[in-house]
Amino acid sequence: MTLLTVLLLAVGTYGLRLSGPLLSDRIELGERARRLLSVSATVLLCALVATSSLTADHAFAGWARPAGVLVGGVLATRRAPFLATVLAAAATTGVLRWLGVD
């Protein structure tokens, strides 16, 4: 049962991804719709980051995790190397937790 579900979801996902290039010639979006779609992807990503960095088990995750995400975000906007960004974010969270900041 689980394998069948995974296969159906894979086929559905592939179908959705394939429909974009296949239908791009048939459907013409206005400039406002394109702008809204672009902004909505950014808003969705920000909501995902906020939810995963601020909450744990339906409660506030503490200050260490958001501080690490903030350090990672700042380094990413300054175009720091990916590995350095991830290590700095993890180190920030780890040091704060080691110091007793939850």
Question: What can you see in these coordinates?
Answer:
The chain is mostly helical and 102 residues long. The chain has 4 helices and 2 strands; from the N terminus they run ααββαα. The chain has helices at residues 2-23, 31-54, 64-77, 82-98; strands spanning 55-56, 59-60. The chain has a two-stranded antiparallel ribbon.
Task: Work out the number of β strands.
Answer: 2
Number of helical regions: 4
Question: What sort of overall outline do the alpha carbons produce when their principal axes are compared?
Answer: extended
**Helix content, binned percent:** over 70%
Main sheet summary:
2 strands, antiparallel
Q: Which structural class should the secondary elements be placed in?
A: mainly alpha
| Terminal CA distance | 41 Å
Average pLDDT taken over every residue: 92
